[in-house]
């Protein structure tokens, strides 16, 4: 028997969340539904928004596995395992609507990742490149999925350059990936962003071309949350109204869209004109808050909204963007007034909320201007081997469980949620991973919380 684990990392603002069954018309395929046990969380005030859980059902009506567009806590997984569905001749999949609950007292807002954290496996290859070698590597690329690794190396290298050749290499590689591999991890990172009007490697012609490629891709895969996020991330500075048009139809389908829209509104309201291609953080803005249609619409949308799941992350994004711009002397005039009005509006809905507008404080994860962050990723130092469940061995069952873990600044697992895999393997993987410990992730010498996706693979070989 073998086990293997795959982890992906990102810095986060931690959210404590629970889930509850959505109140909707009973599904005729559900024979027995079980409400999760929320224990001490029951009865607490919360914000809520819907998510979807897709359950694979065996012919006898018992649930085999599930996938969710947001991590499911343990109590929800236990409830899902007790569901019973209509028997059928063959196995089938069914979608169950749930509502995600975020306790008010624990909600601190969310923001898009401010730093690109490429795997250290790319570092050596990137360091070997100069313009000549980058062009040689590009000429050797094949139009297959296997080329994504080399294309990632090229994009990481190009993001730190300033010459025309690097600009052209970036444009060609981003365009190819959008057309052929829109789910590639590198497209979700800052090195695949593109400035149009201002900032590092600004390229209005290439931006216009890739913008259209993303819009065409979204039309083809509009229900893909990962691609939707990546496209909105690319478009959010130059085309905030296009992002709004793109996201609004999916607000009830994908729970994350509220945060993506909040971040887009914040940057538009502030008038951000470019991003740092190594960190993803706002790099430039106008001298004062703009009065463009998109900026006016963004500010009005926030001031008119009563949705705290939109307002709180928007304020968080606004404040962090302002702090970064202040560090480089580029904070627009008018920020303090708008931030104060937005904070007052939020306090009408959530009294006593801590919403400071002081732009002189450095963001939690910022680096001095002109220098990329010094990043040391978490390293596992304590490993507990999963126990292969007897039921799974008896049924010769193999498979993969995917979990999302928040690893805190001390290297301990602070939260662990389920995103997919056979239920019979879930308990084993959860108990093992919960005991793992890490050397903390460090950014500029400071420990930070991270979220990591973990895959635990079970094989009888």
Rounded mean pLDDT score = 80
- Number of DSSP E strands: 17
**What is the CATH architecture descriptor of the domain at 1-13 and 374-461?**
2-Layer Sandwich
In the CATH hierarchy, the third-tier topology of the domain at 1-13 and 374-461 is known as TolA/TonB C-terminal domain
Percent range for β-strand residues: 15-25%
Shape: globular
Q: How large is the count of helical segments?
A: 14
CATH first level of the domain at 1-13 and 374-461: which class? Alpha Beta
CATH superfamily of the domain at 1-13 and 374-461: TonB
| pLDDT < 50 runs, ≥5 residues | 7-25, 104-118, 359-374
- Major sheet: 8 strands, antiparallel
Structural class: alpha+beta
Using only CA atoms, what is the Rg?
Answer: 23 Å
What is the element layout, followed by pairings?
Blueprint: E1 2-11, E2 18-21, E3 30-32, E4 46-57, E5 63-72, H1 74-81, E6 84-85, E7 92-103, H2 123-127, H3 131-140, H4 148-158, H5 164-180, H6 204-220, H7 225-235, H8 240-247, H9 257-270, E8 272-275, E9 282-285, H10 293-304, H11 308-327, H12 335-349, E10 375-376, E11 379-382, H13 390-394, E12 399-407, E13 413-422, H14 423-433, E14 437-439, E15 441-443, E16 446-448, E17 450-459
Antiparallel strand pairs: 1-17, 2-7, 3-6, 4-5, 4-7, 5-13, 8-9, 10-15, 11-14, 12-13, 12-17, 15-16
Written description of the protein model:
This protein is an alpha+beta fold. It has a domain at 1-13 and 374-461: 2-Layer Sandwich (TolA/TonB C-terminal domain). It is 36% helix and 23% strand. The chain has 14 helices and 17 strands. The protein has helices spanning 74-81, 123-127, 131-140, 148-158, 164-180, 204-220, 225-235, 240-247, 257-270, 293-304, 308-327, 335-349, 390-394, 423-433, and strands at 2-11, 18-21, 30-32, 46-57, 63-72, 84-85, 92-103, 272-275, 282-285, 375-376, 379-382, 399-407, 413-422, 437-439, 441-443, 446-448, 450-459. The strands form five sheets. The protein has an eight-stranded antiparallel sheet with strand order 1-17-12-13-5-4-7-2, covered by helices on one side. A three-stranded antiparallel sheet has the order 10-15-16, with no helix packed on it. The chain has a two-stranded antiparallel sheet with strand order 3-6. Helix 11 (308-327) runs antiparallel to helix 12 (335-349). The longest helix has 20 residues, at 308-327. Mean pLDDT is 80; it is low at 7-25, 104-118 and 359-374.
